[in-house]
Amino acid sequence: MAKPYMPKNILITGAAGFIASHVAIRIAKKYPDYKIVVLDKLDYCSNLKNLLPVSSSPNFKFVKGDIASADLVNFILVTENIDTMMHFAAQTHVDNSFGNSFEFTKNNIYGTHVLLEACRNTGQIKRFIHVSTDEVYGETDEDAVVGNHEASQLLPTNPYAATKAGAEMLVMAYGRSYGLPVITTRGNNVYGPNQFPEKLIPKFILLAMKGEPLPIHGDGSNVRSYLYCEDVAEAFEVILHRGEVGHVYNIGTKKERTVMDVARDICKIFNLVAEKAIKFVDNRPFNDQRYFLDDEKLKGLGWSERTYWEEGLRKTVEWYVANSDYWGDVSGALLPHPKAGMMPGHEGPQDTKGMLAQFITQNQAKTLAAPAASEHGAKTVENGAQVYTNGTVH
């Protein structure tokens, strides 16, 4: 096996969100010699509280801004001497993509293109890890006994998956045309603490806590595979250090369960009668019946799933019970068919200014000379928060 890659300065996009926050925290804590810079625009499903465990760490910085701002991205790469990009930022909720697909194209394709071009321009990136999804493969045959492997054809069936596949094509092209050292990951569903409750498991948990019906699209026979967030964070740690440039890695599990299975397990935890608690609703315009991955390639790097479903679900339920108001008013997300307009505003549910001030206070930061900027420009804070309003740096 080749010598492990050792990064110095890592930019993680979208790390105020669910999966990337667990990755950022794991790496920042475990590798104090690495500098971690987070770029997040704090959309509705992001929360600065997700990053509080490392907000006072001397090797951590937060930047409020949009990956679609080329000036901002180039500025961060140069001033922070970034050598590694871990790109998680994306619009990810399938239901929203059916009614708001242009936002998915803007964020997932254009945003990725901006990052790639910035990396090409600076010429200093030694790893560009692009985070994709199992949904780019499209629907797996119900009787398939072998999952999709990394060379399988991409056949996305919904606007979200199509934009992620499109982003992958750009990543692959920049790897081939410009020699950018790219790695792509495609993962199964992830669950655990801190996840915004538009996704199935936290939605069902919060509804069960309220004694409200659990809405199931269609007949509940759709099959999915679920990985606990800490296992996934470990997978990204392994890929960061041992992944080979130009390769794709599935992050998956062979353990499958239907949506009905998930609902019943949650009902059991809350002592609810599933037949009474579950409510069947209209299906999505298209709802893939099954996603199934071949995970052998990643296992070859030394990773394996550690958290059994029962243990992971218990931990997740305990967290939501203890943090029921973590996201504020999420009533719009708990509807059977939520739409983007029903979500909280783009600043997220938290008090953004207050949370940023807390980041600064915890780091005992002092304000440095900022680059020349307009009134919508930049404020740079040493060892704490870097706040960029409207993502513009001049």
Automatic annotation (TrEMBL):
Kindly state which keywords UniProt assigns to this record, in alphabetical order. Lyase, NAD
The residues the entry assigns to the signal sequence are none
- One Pfam annotation reads GDP_Man_Dehyd
Q: Which cofactor does it need?
A: NAD(+)
Question: InterPro entries annotated for this entry?
Answer: dTDP_Gluc_deHydtase, NAD(P)-bd_dom, NAD(P)-bd_dom_sf
Molecular function terms in GO for this entry? lyase activity
Q: Which SUPFAM superfamilies match?
A: NAD(P)-binding Rossmann-fold domains
Q: Is Translocase included in the keywords of this UniProt record? A: no
**The NAD(P)-binding domain covers which part of the protein?**
11-316
Q: Name one GO biological process term.
A: nucleotide-sugar metabolic process
Q: What is this protein called?
A: NAD(P)-binding domain-containing protein
